[in-house]
Design a protein that fits this description.
The chain is mainly alpha-helical and 200 residues long. Helices cover 44% and strands 10% of the residues. The chain contains ten helices and five strands; from the N terminus they run αβααββααααββααα. 16% of the residues are buried.
Length: 200
Amino acid sequence: MTKDRSKPEFDRELVDLSPELRWREWMRRIEAVLFATGSPVSREDLARVVGQGVSVDLLIDDLAADLEGRAFELAKVADGWLFRTRVPYASAIRAAADVAEQLLDLADFDIAVLAAIAYDQPVTRDGLKDIFGKDISRDLIGRLHGRNLIANGPRSPRPGAPYTYVTTEQFLVAFGLQSLRDLPDREQMEDAGMISALRT
């Protein structure tokens, strides 16, 4: 006689609970999912752990309110949400925990090239050379690739079809952006001398 090894059906609806307890349980499920992952979780993925037709956005709002005053917050990044430590606690984390692997640890020029890719994507190495007035090394591109901050974009329609570079979801996560529309205004950065300062 074989045992039934099928997984028990996941109860999304929680009809046996009162409306208040059901809502609280859905909030806790979302909290558990976000706690267990280090990357943004989309609305569609979170909807799989709550009742049919339940507003994930309202649950997120209630969870965020529930976290007021805590050392971490719920952040909308890329196309999803994740937990992030609040800025005032960054120095405490650096003092007590080994977070070296999580730091970007990029030189100023690396960050300038990353910014150029973010603003001008998809862009080739030749396009970056036009921006900075010098060749951009393959090693620098490799460092940005290695940290998953950039990826290969579509091939350029120019002779030889060189690779273009685009930013990744990890880029959005690393800089706390919901989308590329949240990048600081380029003209304001240039007026403030920030972009030209990094290019020299």
